[in-house]
């Protein structure tokens, strides 16, 4: 089970829920770790 | 450029949200980030590895959570991790399948062994799928190759099984003689109707008729569907899953009665024998015969079965008009049975029955009677 770039791109394109949560997750991690 | 601006917009919004929340406590932020990360993971798992998700969603809380994610993303609940325990499949236990088998035999006559075979394969596949640890290489729920003479009720049998299994008699029928790869899968920029149907209702029965007439492109697509359970629309990166569908392929076999066949071909001993028989009698691609779950050989019905089918059709026609058919003279049944010729089977039986009972039904309607008895009117001597 490996994550491929095109799978993430497809999810990003298809679901607004995925876009918002991924963005929040990345920003949250940057903020917390920084 | 537009995508870059879109991503930037999301980052600015998220940054603003995080900055606002930063004043509260870092633990709240940590919880929010964890929540967002979990959402991302669940959306990914729902799409790519639903069977793996099943192992981690046992409790009511997690099931509810997965359903919420399904609601927000619009992914079909049938494919989510909890579909095995709250299915849109009507048959689950061995008892369900046994009852379904009895019901199917009441409405489909002359194919008892095929009904048993189809339902037992479906039961086995469902049980094994639940215990399977990975979703990789999982084909459809089950696939069947029904080989038999024209007009003996292959489509009717499929509809009855679909009704019992999914609760809906919706069967998507494709005639392989007229089907091309483009009409099945679509073209770049325009997906085929098949993908829309499966995306909208993942639990559906797909019926490919006259499989021996399918061209190479269609055969390749069907083999991929049967083996992997996924098809990729032309020009797209994401595959559509067909893992909740049931695929039925039909092939036209000669209507030679079983008595005239060689003794070793009357009752195939194993799946291997059935495959060899089918590939020898029908010009079918060997890959299809190998890929299907079960090969079912349907024989031409005998006169008793034909009479039962005619009687059932008469009952149905009368019932549709609010009249009960109490008795039918055997001679009437015999005449109808004799009109069923090899090669067309039961194809025109409903039309003949409609013509036959039109006058008696008219009289019954005019006289407001609810019971009807069909008998031959004696000829007058004059």
| Oligomeric description of these chains | heterodimer
Q: What is the typical, i.e. mean, pLDDT of chain A?
A: 82
Radius of gyration of chain A (CA) equals 11 Å
Structural class of the helix and strand makeup of chain A? mainly alpha
Q: What would you say this structure looks like, in words?
A:
- Chain A is mainly alpha-helical and 34 residues long.
- Chain A has 2 helices and no strands.
- Chain A is flat.
- Chain B is α/β, with parallel strands linked by helices and 382 residues long.
- Chain B contains 15 helices and 11 strands.
- The longest helix of chain B has 23 residues.
Please name the defining characteristics of this protein:
heterodimer; A: 34 residues; mainly alpha; 82% helix; flat; B: 382 residues; alpha/beta; 15 helices; 11 strands; 53% helix
Task: Outline the fold blueprint.
The complex is a heterodimer of chains A (34) and B (382).
Chain A: H1 5-14, H2 16-33
Chain B: H1 2-22, H2 26-48, H3 50-56, H4 60-73, H5 94-107, H6 112-131, E1 142-148, H7 154-166, E2 171-175, H8 181-185, E3 186-187, E4 190-191, H9 193-200, E5 205-209, H10 216-227, E6 230-231, E7 240-241, E8 246-252, H11 271-281, H12 286-291, E9 294-297, H13 303-320, E10 324-328, H14 330-339, H15 349-367, E11 371-374
Parallel strand pairs in B: 1-8, 1-9, 2-5, 5-8, 10-11
Antiparallel strand pairs in B: 3-4, 6-7
Helix pairs in contact in B: 2-3, 2-4, 5-6, 13-14, 13-15
């Amino acid at each position: 089970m490996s994550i491929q770039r095109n799978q993430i791109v497809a999810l990003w394109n298809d679901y607004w829920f995925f876009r918002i949560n991924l963005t929040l997750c990345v920003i949250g991690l940057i903020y917390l770790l920084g | 450029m537009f995508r870059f601006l879109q991503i930037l917009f999301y980052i600015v919004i998220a940054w603003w949200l995080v900055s606002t929340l930063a004043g509260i406590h870092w633990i709240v932020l940590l919880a929010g980030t964890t929540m967002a990360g979990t959402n991302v993971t669940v959306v990914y798992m729902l799409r790519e590895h639903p069977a793996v998700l099943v192992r981690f969603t046992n409790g009511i809380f997690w099931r509810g959570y997965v359903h919420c994610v399904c609601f927000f993303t619009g992914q079909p609940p049938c494919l989510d991790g909890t579909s095995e325990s709250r299915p849109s499949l009507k048959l689950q236990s061995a008892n369900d399948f046994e009852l379904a088998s009895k019901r199917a035999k009441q409405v489909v006559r002359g194919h008892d062994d095929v009904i048993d075979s189809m339902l037992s394969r479906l039961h086995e596949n469902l049980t094994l799928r639940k215990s399977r640890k990975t979703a990789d290489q999982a084909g459809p729920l089950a696939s069947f190759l029904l080989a038999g003479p024209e007009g003996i009720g292959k489509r009717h049998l499929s509809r009855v099984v679909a009704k019992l299994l999914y609760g809906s008699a919706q069967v998507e029928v494709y005639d392989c003689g007229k089907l091309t790869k483009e009409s099945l899968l679509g073209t770049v920029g325009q997906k085929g109707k098949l993908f829309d149907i499966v995306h909208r209702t993942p639990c559906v029965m797909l019926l490919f008729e006259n499989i021996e007439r399918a061209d190479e492109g269609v055969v390749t697509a069907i083999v991929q569907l049967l083996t992997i359970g996924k098809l990729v629309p032309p020009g797209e990166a994401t595959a559509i899953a067909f893992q909740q569908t049931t695929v039925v392929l039909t092939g036209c076999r000669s209507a030679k009665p079983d008595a005239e066949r060689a003794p070793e071909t009357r009752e195939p001993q194993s799946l291997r024998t059935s495959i060899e028989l089918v590939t020898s009698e029908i010009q079918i691609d060997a890959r299809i015969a190998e890929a299907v779950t079960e090969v079912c050989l349907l024989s031409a019905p005998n006169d008793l079965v034909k009479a039962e089918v005619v009687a059932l059709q008469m009952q149905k026609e009368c019932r549709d008009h609010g009249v009960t058919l109490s008795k039918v003279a055997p001679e009437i049944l015999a005449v109808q049975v004799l009109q069923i010729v090899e090669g067309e089977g039961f194809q025109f039986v409903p039309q003949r029955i409609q013509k036959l009972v039109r006058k008696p039904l008219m009289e019954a309607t005019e006289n407001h009677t609810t019971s009807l008895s069909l008998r031959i009117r004696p000829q007058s001597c004059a």
